[in-house]
Amino acid sequence: MNNFIQHIILFFSIVYCCSIYSQTINVCKDCPISSLKEAIAIAKDFDTILVKKGTYKEYNIIVDKPLIIIGKNYPVIDGELKGEIITVISDNVTVDGLFIINVGTSYTEDYAAIRIRKSKNFVVQNLVLEKLFFGIYLEKSRNGKVFHNKIIGEAIEEYNSGNGIQLWYCKNIEIEHNFVQHVRDGIYLEFSDDCLIKNNVSAENLRYGLHFMFSNNDIYQDNTFEKNGAGVAVMFSKKIKMLNNTFKENWGTASYGMLLKEINDAEILGNTFEENTIGINIEGSNRIVYKNNNFINNGWAIKVRGACYNNSFVENNFLYNSFDISYNSKVNDNVFDRNYWTNYTGYDLDKDGIGDVPYRPVKLFSYIVNRTPETIILLRSLFIDLIDFSEKVSPVFTPDNLLDNNPLIKRITW
Amino acid sequence: MLKILKYSFFDLMRSRWSYVYFAFYLLLGIVLLFLNNDLSKAVITLMNVIIVLVPLIGTIFGVMYYYNSKEFTELLLAQPLKRSSIFLGQYLGVAISLSMSLILGLGIPFIAYGLFKSNAIWDFSLLLITGIFLTLIFTALAFNIALSNENKIRGFAYAILLWLFLAIIYDGIFLMSLILFEDYPLDKLSLIGTMLNPIDLSRTLILLKLDISALLGYTGAVFKKFFGTNLGLIISFIMLSLWVILPVLRITFKSKKKDF
Amino acid sequence: MVSIENLHKKFNKNVVLNGIDLSIIEGGIFAILGPNGSGKTTLIKSILGMVIPNKGTINVLGENIKNSSHYRHKIDYLPQIANFPSNLKVKELIKMIKDLRSHTNEDQRLIQLFKLAPFLDKKLGNLSGGTKQKVNLVLTFMFDSPLIILDEPTTGLDPIALIRLKDLIQTEKDKGKTILITSHIMSFVEEVSDEIVFILEGQIYFKGSILELKNKTNQSDFEHAIASILTNNHA
Question: What are the structural domains of chain C?
């Protein structure tokens, strides 16, 4: 008890001291302090630096003490393509409201507009980043927040462009309300656990809108991934929750809404996959629950490329996809149940809302197209319908037990 | 020609087959839209129907009309009229009345359903344009068959064979050859193969609208250019027009040489 | 009026017309006769441009008819089997032919003559053969062309209509028109025609008046004269 009171006293005294002694340092072109670097140099811990409107040509700004850096009316920090612009190496730093441009490009070092290194309790918010290499780079940091930033790159080639928001060995980070476009990977997580990625828009990036590698227990929800080179890739990760995201218009040879590779025990709920060449591309992924997702107008709603066990696809809507499911093997260990398929042509005589004949989502033609891709041009031909029908009656090439035994008659709403 | 067209058209507009054809589409449209309540699905189903049925009806109707109006044609031939005007007039009469049945039969339920307020209007217009092209093409082909065959039964047989070939057999052979030669680059071949069959051509046009996501999954550069840009649409329309123009030219040519 | 030189026509390998030379002067009724398959209809259709000859030239009113359609303004043609579009009404057909050729009021008189008034609103498909033939006659005679070609005009006609037809032909002749007729009814031919053109195996076998034919064959009866040609040639 005594100990507890001591703690409280200590806590209040810190708050008191800091609110009293912390001061605000103004930075502007005509002020005594006219650069961010100077301001940081003279600042004490927990001071606030207020950067006024103007252009500041600075780079290699090291933030080595707990500070709050706030831009008023989006002052421009111009790195003049010379290297990294802001590097945070202290805990408890907030960077807010800056317009950072012209990050240097290098083939040996990943220069970022702002890098947080080995830091805790940081906040990066309301930044606008343009002409960048890497955008916001979090490195071995934890308990931070990346909120409401706008990152607009000009990436043309993969090899000389960087990622919008990159996490490397981080933990417990919230990434919310960011807008990332035209970089290599919109958001990239490597070895980062327990992160929340929410309400972001990642569009028109060269490679992936969102990219997971070796990261576990993360949640991403309510994000929109649109027109990215290849879509969203989730690889070699465990227990990821993917909720209510939208994957749209990822078109191209190796494009998909989402790529799952070596993913176990994930939950994929309430997402919308619309107009992608492939909705979800699955490889070596087990025990995943797919529920209440909408697959609309995709080339292939789901493409299963083998070694996928114990997955369940329940109560999803498959609407107007050219192909619903494609398998490249004859073996099936996944469950399809109670989905709604617009391609279902059965009937419901007993009016219980469930079709009286099972639906077979894998068509012979999808098998043929896997083998000889050019045959795609015969899609929807009467001849193809005929051979699909004969395959439906007696499956030879497609998994025999791959059936939705309870195909729903009406589109599911939730 | 316009006078002949007018008379053939009104003659056909009075025939019960035009009404049957019209009623069929009307019913189909109503069932698809009002019982199913799903515009996109209706458009897809219609596409399947149109691609198969329009050519069939076009050929059968064209051949039938030609043979049935043979004596009438002879009456016209004795009049001071150019042969090409007589046959082109009759051809257009048939093609236009069939197209009217299609447009009105499908158009009425779709408009009643509120097509103009939905964004499916482009898909639907494309569907109708394709249907009209197919009618023009297959009626012309039917007239060609009929002009070349005095024997009515043989003419009908050829007409049905033509349909069967272009609607089903062609695609079968096409598929087989693609699979047989799968080790070679095939994207050009497959596009050419498509161009040579008006049914495949129309199907491609509709695929461009409905299945673009899937089509873009294929690697070939030619494919990509064809389907990824407006090139595919333009070339398809040019080819469809050629498929109308060539048989029509043959009608005029053949009719000039023919004895009655 | 009509002059034909060296006209050849074969259907596949079947030679139908084999070098016909024929010239028909203006005015008068010419009967084109011959056994079945002798090429009568082919000859007529060649004149009308419905059959395209393999060789030879045809001039109608001094104009070569090859690749031309305009000269048919000067011909009224009665086809052999009149099968009209069955959906059309009689009235509409008459109107349509007038629309296609030129305006005339002659049709009213002809309709009265053949008593067609009650049928005007009927569809052609529902008419009897005889009535159809009457419609056919109306369509032919309602225009005032210098050349009239009648292919089996008597088919299906009742005696009254037949008399009307003969009168009609006579009137047209009196106007100075040229009339070509084919018929199997020898009495009819004998009664109306001024001159006979007899075609046999694709060639003109005889051309002249009935009297000349009788003399040539030493038969007093026209029908027998015709028959004797056929038996002599086929024996």
Answer: 2-234 (3.40.50.300)
Q: What is the pLDDT of residue B245?
A: 96
**What confidence category does residue C232 fall into, taking pLDDT thresholds of 50, 70 and 90?**
confident
Are 3 or more Cβ–Cβ pairs between C and B shorter than 8 Å?
A: yes
pLDDT digit string, tens, across residues C32-46: 988 887 888 888 888
Instruction: Evaluate whether residue A244 is within a structural domain.
Output: yes
User: Is residue A84 in a domain?
Assistant: yes
**A251 and A117 fall within a common domain:** no
- Contact check, Cβ <8 Å, A372/B193: no
Q: In 3D, which of A122, A125, A130, A128 has the Cα closest to residue A103?
A: A130
A132 token code pair: 């960048």
Give the pLDDT confidence of B63-87 residue by residue, as tens digits.
999 998 887 787 788 888 888 888 9
Q: Domain residues for A331?
A: 230-362+399-414
In this structure, is residue A77 part of a structural domain?
A: yes
Containing H/E element for A312?
A: strand A312-314
Do both A32 and A140 map to the same domain? yes
Question: Could you count the other beta carbons within 10 Å of the beta carbon of residue A203?
Answer: 18
Do A186 and A305 sit in the same domain of this protein? no
Q: CA nearest A248 in B: which residue?
A: B213
Residue in C66, C130, C73, C64 with CA at minimum distance from that of residue C104: C73
Q: Label residue A289 left, alpha or beta by phi (over 0 means left) and psi (-120 to 50 means alpha).
A: beta
Cβ separation of C70 and B80 shorter than 8 Å? Answer: yes
Chain B residues whose CB is inside 8 A of the C77 CB are: 78
Give the whole-angstrom CA distance, residue A191 versus residue A8: 36
Substitution target in C12, C17, C51, C87 with the highest count of B β-carbons within 10 Å is C87
User: Do A146 and A257 sit in the same domain of this protein?
Assistant: no
Q: How many CB pairs under 8 A join A and B?
A: 116
CATH classification of the domain holding A166: 2.160.20.10
Are B72 and C49 inside 8 Å of each other by CB? no
Best-predicted range by mean pLDDT (A263-277, A318-332, C46-60): A263-277
B15, B79, B258: residue with CB nearest C101: B79
Q: Outline where DSSP puts E strands in C41-168.
A: 55-60, 63-64, 75-78, 147-151
Range of the domain at B98: 2-257
Binary contact (B217, A299; C-beta < 8 A) = yes
Q: Which residue has the higher pLDDT, A2 or A121?
A: A121
Mean pLDDT of C94-119: 87
Largest CA distance in chain C: 53
- Rounded-to-integer distance, Cα B53 and Cα B34, Å: 22
Domains contained in chain B, number: 1
Q: Which residues of C touch B69 (CB under 8 A)?
A: 85
Measure the CA–CA gap between A222 and A271, rounded to whole angstroms.
8
Q: Which of A376, A381, A382 sits opposite B214 (nearest CB)?
A: A376
For residue A373, the model assigns a pLDDT of 85
What is the number of domains present in chain A? Answer: 2
Question: CA C129, C132, C137 angle in degrees (round to 5)?
Answer: 125
Domain boundary among A141, A171, A205: A205
